[in-house]
Amino acid sequence: xxxxxxxxxxxxxxxxxxxxxxxxxxxxxxxxxxxxxxxxxxxxxxxxxxxxxxxxxxxxxxxxxxxxxxxxxxxxxxxxxxxxxxxxxxxxxxxxxxxxxxxxxxxxxxxxxxxxxxxxxxxxxxxxxxxxxxxxxxxxxxxxxxxxxxxxxxxxxxxxxxxxxxxxxxxxxxxxxxxxxxxxxxxxxxxxxxxxxxxxxxxxxxxxxxxxxxxxxxxxxxxxxxxxxxxxxxxxxxxxxxxxxxxxxxxxxxxxxxxxxxxxxxxxxxxxxxxxxxxxxxxxxxxxxxxxxxxxxxxxxxxxxxxxxxxxxxxxxxxxxxxxxxx
Length: 327
Fold this sequence. Notes:
This protein is α/β, with parallel strands linked by helices. The protein folds into 2 domains: 1-43, DNA polymerase, domain 1 (Orthogonal Bundle); 44-326, Aldolase class I (TIM Barrel, Alpha-Beta Barrel). It has helices spanning 5-17, 31-40, 100-104, 112-128, 150-161, 183-190, 204-210, 219-227, 251-261, 286-298, 319-326; strands at 47-53, 59-64, 70-78, 81-85, 89-91, 106-109, 135-140, 173-177, 194-198, 237-243, 266-272, 303-306. Strands 1-2-3-4-7-8-9-10-11-12 form a 10-stranded mixed β-sheet, covered by helices on one side. Strand 1 (47-53) and strand 2 (59-64) form a beta hairpin. Helix 9 packs parallel to helix 10. The longest helix is centred in the middle third of the chain and has 17 residues, at 112-128. It is globular and about 70 Å long. The protein starts with a helix and ends with a helix. The mean pLDDT is 93.
């Protein structure tokens, strides 16, 4: 626009640093530039179409985008802060059979602005509720496969990390992927966020049955890629494993986990399945999960059990949008 470069930084701070989308409120830029911005641009935050809060404090949002499409985002209380779960696509092309989003199919990728502005929408909501807790941790674990939208996700991560913008440190941001060849390596090399991998099965045939995309993204190739990802000295990859009763929760499966992950610098996150509306799947019982966890720990792995949050408001990925669509 023929303006000095520092003006871009000023606008960046207003939009992303302070969540201000009204150019007339950007008082440290000239009236002439404000007029040009008003003439040429709009800042279109996602609109909170629906917000439901669980008894455990989890709040799930249905967010309406400028084109009328709807996505989900969730904020989860964690002591003195919230962790926000971000979506990267409208729907998802991966088709995981236990996931509500996987049943929706794929509509389109989100832009970097649509990804990043989910954080602004949550902040505006919390301000309106006079909730003092900050959104200080982010997980790319909402609708969509982030690495299938890597160009826009990378731009979003740059906005999220930039000091003049949302200003999150790397250790507060985690990206979860099923493992997309080439893009996983590129993401690892970028060092823009921590890495989490949705494994959910320790051998290829079962993983392919649960996650049809695994037919393209082979397990052996994924594990080899994880072995070679560049990591900081104390950093570890998070392996995510949803516990499905009678399907992937036996000690035989745990032994296979040990075998394939023995050379991967990782920690394991077991996830108690939030069943929602998907028929044919139940969460493993407490005793089975405990035995699975104990076996992995006995082999030297750090293993955590992720508590299921927001079950009363359909907070698992895609469940609220699915209910909205049904209605």
